[in-house]
Amino acid sequence: MTEFFSNTASLQLGIFVFVCVGLWAAEALVMPTPIGVKARHARGNALFILSALPIQLVMVGLCMAASRWTGEHRWGLVYLLPDAVPSLVRFVGLFVLLDMLDYVYHVCMHKVPVFWKFHSTHHRDSNIDVSTTVREHPGETVIRNAFLILWVLIVGAPVEVLILRQTFESAMNLWAHTAIRLPSPTARVMAWFIVTPNFHHVHHHARQPYTDRNYGDVFTIWDRLFGTFAFMPKSDIIFGLELASVTAARSRPGLSPAL
Do 11 and 137 reside in the same domain of the chain? Predict the structure, then answer.
């Protein structure tokens, strides 16, 4: 079992590094940002992951332990299903349910003031590219994994589902933050199903109400169902965070985006 988790962790890390480096190289080739400027930006964001990595490793161990515990004790929503339900149906259902719960987590990070103090570090990047993915305050690393442990305990996600879900989610997060945008018609079609850079860039707009839109992690259906979807042309997006406008908008919850 120890060897299995060691191999799995190495595979996950390998996939993350491969996708991250590949997207960063692609950005360097096709985007106009000078390579020196881009490298300095990446180094600055990399400092965040270096500070959060020890916390992440400990929290991942706790999450895996929680997952094993739910399996041993048949604890969680998945065990309320009849035994006749096929394993594939359970697997897909848990994957989608965990994605919805990650949407809930992301909304909480914006709406709960103490959580927002940590999450705003991610939004303060004024030059969004794939390196922005790892720009996370260590405090948010703790909160994010604590939420994940809670979700695992609620739904009873087995280790196999959790590993696949987290690997796929990590790759999608890198993809969502890349500076390379899709052609608008293609992006609009894809955004009916999955998160694209075009979709997620709206979430990084400096001003409300767009900072509180497009929370989706893998699937975009949750933003459409819960009324948090918004479209914004690339030319109108300003990356970063205007704290005054965010604070003012939070005091006026009736604001809604132009869809």
Answer: yes
Residues 77 and 185 in one domain: no
pLDDT digits (tens, 9 = 90+) for 44-102: 999 998 888 899 889 988 999 999 999 999 999 999 999 889 999 999 999 999 999 99
Comparing C-alpha atoms, which of 62, 71, 65, 241 is closest to residue 141? 62
- Domain range holding 187? 181-259
What domain count does the chain have? 2
Residue whose tokens read 């303060």: 124
For residue 10, the tally of other CB atoms under 10 A from its CB is 10
DSSP 158: -
134 & 190 share domain: no
At residue 209, what is the residue type? P
CA distance 63 to 166: 11
Q: Is the pTM of this model over 0.85?
A: yes
- Quickly count helices (H) and strands (E) in the chain: 10, 0
Q: Give the list of residues 6+ apart from residue 116 with CB closer than 8 angstroms, or none.
A: 109, 110
Residue 205 backbone dihedrals phi, psi, to 5 degrees? -65, 145
- In sequence order, what are the residues at sequence separation of 6 or more whose Cβ sits closer than 8 angstroms to the Cβ of residue 42? 24, 129, 131
Nearest alpha carbon to residue 130 among 249, 16, 246: 16
